[in-house]
C-alpha cells in the first residue's frame, strides 16, 4: 500500500494500532489479534467503501460544502510573516494550514523535508471474460521482483463496476520506492508487462485487453521512516501558533487519516488565533 519496504517504514506511523498492541503482546500474531479486537468491524459493514460516481467527487463535495473561496492553479512560493498574520501569494491571512506534500511545505517553512515519497503508476486493463480468482485483488511482496506490486479486480470488488458484456476491469499498481527507473518505460510497455505478469500471477493466460489506461502518480506515496512520529511532533513544536501542517506527509496516508489531520490542523490554528 505504501509502495515501500516494510522493514524500512515506521510501524508507529503506518499501523499505529498494531504498534500499540505490539508494545504489550509478545508475538506478532498476538499483536495482530489484539489490534483487530481493539477495532472490531460492526457486523454487516463491508470491508471496502467508496464514493458513488468516483472518489474525485469527494473533493468537489468538500469544496462546495466549505463555502470557501478556492483559487486553483496558484502555487504558493513564499510564506511571509506580516503584522497580524501571513502573506500567502497575493493574500494576507490570519492563519495558514499547509496541506501540501511534505517537500513543498518544508520549502515554505525553510526546513529540511521530513521524508521522501514513492512514485507509482496504475495500469487498468479491460479484459473480455478473463478467468480470475474469486478475490477482490492481491498484494505482491517486494522479494518477488515483479513490476506489479498489487492488483485489484474491480469487477469483483465493486458491484457498480460489473458489466453485462463480461468485460472485467483489472487494475495493477506498479512501481516501488527506490525502483523509479522501472516507471521510465512507455505506456504500451507497462501495459504489456502488466498483462504478462498478471497472467503468471493468476496462473491463467489472460485474454488480450480490449482497452488499457496508464495513470502515473509521481512522488505520491509518503515513506514514513522509523522515528517519523517523533520527527513530525518536533517539527510541529517549532511552528508559530497560527501555522499548521496537515495531510498524508504527516499523519497517515489514507483519506480518513488526511481528513482527521486537516480537522486537527484547523483546530490548532483556531486555538492559535484565540
Ligand atoms: C495511486 C493512489 C491510490 C490511492 N488509493 C487510496 C485509496 O483507495 N483509499 C485511500 O484512503 N487513500 C488512497 N490513496 C492515498 C490518498 O489518496 C492520499 O494520501 C491523499 O489524497 C493525500 O491527500 P493530501 O491532501 O495530503 O495531499 P494531496 O492530495 O497530494 O494534496 C496536496 C495539494 O497541494 C498542492 N500543492 C503542492 N505544492 C503547492 C504549492 N506550493 N502551493 C499550493 N498548492 C500546492 C498540490 O497540487 C495538491 O493539490 C491513494 C494514493 C495514490 C497515489
TrEMBL record:
InterPro entries: Amino_oxidase, FAD/NAD-bd_sf, Zeta_carotene_desat/Oxidored. GO terms for molecular function: oxidoreductase activity. It comes from the Bacteria. Residues 31-270 form the Amine oxidase domain. Pfam families: Amino_oxidase. PANTHER family: PROTOPORPHYRINOGEN OXIDASE (PTHR42923:SF3). This is Amine oxidase domain-containing protein. The lineage of its organism: Bacteria, Bacillati, Actinomycetota, Actinomycetes, Micromonosporales.
Amino acid at each position: 500500500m505504501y509502495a515501500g519496504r516494510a522493514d524500512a517504514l515506521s510501524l508507529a506511523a503506518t499501523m499505529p494500532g498494531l504498534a500499540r498492541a505490539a508494545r504489550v503482546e509478545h508475538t506478532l500474531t498476538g499483536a495482530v489479534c489484539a489490534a483487530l479486537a481493539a477495532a472490531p468491524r460492526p457486523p454487516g459493514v463491508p470491508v471496502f467503501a467508496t464514493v458513488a460516481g468516483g472518489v474525485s467527487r469527494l473533493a468537489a463535495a468538500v469544496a462546495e460544502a466549505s463555502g470557501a473561496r478556492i483559487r486553483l492553479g496558484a502555487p504558493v512560493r513564499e510564506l511571509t510573516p506580516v503584522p497580524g498574520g501571513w502573506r500567502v501569494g497575493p493574500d494576507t491571512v490570519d492563519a495558514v494550514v499547509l496541506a501540501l506534500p511534505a517537500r513543498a511545505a518544508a520549502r515554505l517553512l525553510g526546513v529540511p523535508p521530513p521524508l521522501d515519497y514513492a512514485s507509482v503508476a496504475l495500469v487498468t486493463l479491460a479484459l473480455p471474460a478473463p478467468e480470475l480468482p474469486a478475490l477482490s485483488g492481491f498484494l505482491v511482496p517486494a522479494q518477488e521482483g515483479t513490476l506489479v506490486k498489487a492488483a485489484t479486480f474491480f469487477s469483483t470488488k465493486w458491484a457498480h463496476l460489473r458489466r453485462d458484456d463480461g468485460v472485467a476491469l483489472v487494475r495493477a499498481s506498479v512501481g516501488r520506492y527506490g525502483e523509479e527507473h522501472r516507471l521510465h518505460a512507455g505506456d504500451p510497455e507497462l501495459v504489456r508487462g502488466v498483462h504478462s505478469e498478471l497472467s503468471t500471477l493468476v496462473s491463467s493466460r489472460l485474454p488480450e485487453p480490449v482497452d488499457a489506461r496508464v495513470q502515473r502518480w509521481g512522488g505520491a506515496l509518503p515513506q514514513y521512516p522509523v522515528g517519523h512520529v517523533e520527527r513530525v511532533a518536533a517539527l510541529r513544536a517549532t511552528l508559530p501558533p497560527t501555522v499548521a501542517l496537515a495531510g498524508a506527509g504527516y499523519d497517515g496516508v489514507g483519506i480518513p487519516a488526511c481528513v482527521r489531520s486537516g480537522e486537527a490542523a484547523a483546530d490548532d490554528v483556531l486555538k492559535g488565533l484565540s
